[in-house]
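Hi support team,

I've been running sequence recovery on a batch of backbones for a student project. Most finish fine, but this one hangs at about 90% for roughly twenty minutes before it completes. I'm not sure whether the input is malformed or the queue is just slow. I've pasted the C-alpha cells below so you can try to reproduce it. Let me know if you need the job ID as well.

Thanks,
M.K.
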C-alpha cells in the first residue's frame, strides 16, 4: 500500500500551559508515496513534546501515567481506524479519505447516533415500551447537556466519565428527580456503552460504570402494598359509578392472576386460556430475555368471574380476550391503548380508595406488590414468588415484598418451641 498513516505533533504552533512546558497539537499524518505528499488532520489532543516521546518512543522500563495510557489508547485507535479506512477505499484521494474517516468516526463515537439506531431497531421489532425507555433516557441526557450550553449531537462516549455522571446525578437531584429515576435513565446508556465496546467503536477503558467508577443508583424500593385489612376493605367497598366497578374488577383481576400487569392482561388471547389456568409469556422479559419461559397462572372463582363478565363475545382462539385492544392494532397503538386503560383503572381505584379511607397513592402496581406480600405472609417462599411473578432472580422479587406483618412475626415467635 502506497499510503501510510502516523501520529505526529505539530511544533509549528504551541499553546500556553500555565507556565509549564508548551503544548503542541497532535495530528494524524497521512502520506502518499506515489503523490509524494502528506496531509495532517486535527485530532483535538495536545501534548508536550516530552509526553509525545514517552508515548511513542519510551525509554527502557519507563512507565506511563494513567492519563498518558488513556491518551495512547485513544491515539492508537485513531491510527488503526485510519488504516481500516485506507484499506476500504477503492481509489485514494485525500478528500475521499477525510470524508469517510471523519464521517464514520463521528457516527460511531457520538452518543445520539447509538441511541437513535437502538430506538429504531426496537420500534421495528415492536418493542415500543423499551424504545420509550431509551427515548426518555436520551431526552434526559439532552436536557443536562443543554443546561451546560452544549449540544447532544456533539456528545461522545469518551467524554462521559465518572465526574460527568456525578454532575448529571447532581443536576437530576436538583430537578427533583429520585435516585430510582436516575437509575432508570442511566441503564440504557450503560447498555449502549457495552454495545459500542463489543463493536470495538470504543475501548473498554472508557466504560465509566462499576466498581471504583460510577455506580448507577438503585434507589430505595417504595413498598406499594395494601395490608390484609386494607385489602379486605377495598374488596368489599361499594363502587359509586360503573367506571369504579370496572376499575376495581380489573385491579383485583391483576391481584388474582399472580399480580399480572395490565399490559399482559390486555394482550391475553383466548388461546392462552385453558380449563383451570392461563399460560402466557410475560411481555417485559420478552424484550430482554430470549430464553423467556411460559408462566402458568391458575384461575380461581374471582378471576373466572371477571373473565366471564368482560370477555369478548364469540371470540376466536387468536382474538384478544378483553375489548381493550383490536387485532389490527400496531405496537404503537397497543402501547397507547394500554396506557389509557391503565390510567382509567388508576383514576377510579384511587377515587374508590379515598372514599374508603385507604391510601390514595394506590395504583395497578399495588396489585402486583400486594399479591407478593400477601403470598409470602401466607407462607409462600421467595422462590415460589419469583416463579409466580415471572422474575429471573430473587433480588427483583424481594423489591416487591413489603415486609412481614407484626402478626406473622408474632406467630413465628410463638412457634419456635412447637417441637
Amino acid at each position: 500500500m502506497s499510503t501510510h498513516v502516523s501520529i505526529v505533533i505539530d511544533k509549528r504552533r504551541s499553546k500556553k500551559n500555565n507556565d509549564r512546558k508548551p503544548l503542541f497539537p497532535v495530528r494524524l499524518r497521512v502520506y502518499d508515496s506515489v503523490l509524494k505528499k502528506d496531509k495532517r488532520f486535527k485530532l483535538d489532543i495536545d501534548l508536550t513534546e516530552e509526553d509525545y516521546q514517552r508515548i511513542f518512543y519510551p525509554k527502557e522500563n519507563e512507565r506511563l501515567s494513567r492519563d498518558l495510557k488513556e491518551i495512547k489508547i485513544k491515539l492508537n485507535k485513531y491510527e488503526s481506524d485510519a488504516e481500516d479506512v485506507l484499506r476500504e477505499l477503492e481509489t485514494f484521494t485525500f478528500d475521499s479519505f477525510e470524508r469517510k474517516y471523519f464521517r464514520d468516526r463521528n457516527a460511531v463515537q457520538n452518543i445520539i447516533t447509538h441511541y437513535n439506531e437502538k430506538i429504531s431497531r426496537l420500534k421495528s421489532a415492536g418493542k415500543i415500551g423499551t424504545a420509550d425507555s431509551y427515548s426518555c433516557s436520551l431526552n434526559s441526557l439532552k436536557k443536562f447537556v443543554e443546561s451546560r450550553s452544549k449540544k447532544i449531537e456533539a456528545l461522545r462516549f469518551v467524554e462521559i466519565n465518572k465526574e460527568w455522571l456525578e454532575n448529571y446525578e447532581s443536576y437530576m437531584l436538583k430537578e427533583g428527580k429520585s435516585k430510582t429515576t436516575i437509575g432508570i435513565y442511566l441503564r440504557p446508556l450503560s447498555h449502549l456503552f457495552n454495545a459500542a465496546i463489543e463493536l470495538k467503536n470504543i475501548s473498554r477503558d472508557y466504560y465509566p460504570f462499576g466498581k471504583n467508577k460510577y455506580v448507577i443508583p438503585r434507589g430505595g424500593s417504595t413498598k406499594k402494598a395494601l395490608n390484609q385489612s386494607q385489602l379486605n376493605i377495598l374488596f368489599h367497598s361499594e363502587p359509586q359509578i360503573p367506571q369504579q366497578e370496572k376499575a376495581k374488577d380489573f385491579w383485583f383481576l391483576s391481584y388474582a392472576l399472580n399480580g399480572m400487569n395490565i399490559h399482559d392482561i390486555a394482550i391475553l388471547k383466548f388461546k392462552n386460556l385453558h380449563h383451570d389456568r392461563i399460560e402466557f409469556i410475560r411481555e417485559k422479559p420478552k424484550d430482554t430475555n430470549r430464553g423467556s419461559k411460559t408462566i402458568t397462572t391458575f384461575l380461581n372463582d374471582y378471576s373466572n368471574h371477571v373473565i366471564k363478565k368482560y370477555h369478548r363475545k364469540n371470540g376466536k382462539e387468536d382474538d384478544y380476550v378483553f375489548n381493550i385492544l383490536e387485532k389490527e392494532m400496531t405496537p404503537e397503538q397497543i402501547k397507547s391503548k394500554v396506557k389509557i386503560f391503565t390510567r382509567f383503572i388508576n383514576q377510579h381505584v384511587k377515587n374508590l380508595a379515598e372514599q374508603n379511607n385507604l391510601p390514595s397513592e394506590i395504583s395497578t402496581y399495588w396489585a402486583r406488590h400486594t399479591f407478593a406480600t400477601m403470598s409470602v405472609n401466607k407462607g409462600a417462599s421467595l422462590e415460589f414468588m419469583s416463579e409466580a411473578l415471572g422474575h429471573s432472580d430473587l433480588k427483583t422479587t424481594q423489591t416487591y415484598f413489603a415486609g412481614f406483618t407484626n402478626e406473622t412475626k408474632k406467630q413465628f415467635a410463638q412457634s419456635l418451641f412447637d417441637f
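--
Follow-up from support: It reproduced on our side and the slowdown came from queue contention, not your input. The chain has three domains: 3-105, 111-206, 228-415. No action needed from you.
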